[in-house]
Write a structure and sequence with these properties.
The protein contains one helix and no strands. 0% of the residues are buried. By secondary structure, it is mainly α.
Length: 56
Amino acid sequence: MAPLLLVLLLALLLFGAGFALKALWIAAVVVLAFWLLGFLMRSTGAGGGRARWYRW
């Protein structure tokens, strides 16, 4: 009975880790898409050149 519980616990942990990693990949792709949109749609500066698209 104990080995079965250990295997089920391991499967549950691996499923949770897999789901978390997939969610992190999806979040990374969304952030990358927003970054690319911000990079491509940046406005021009006063001198006619491209302005900095980031705040810092």
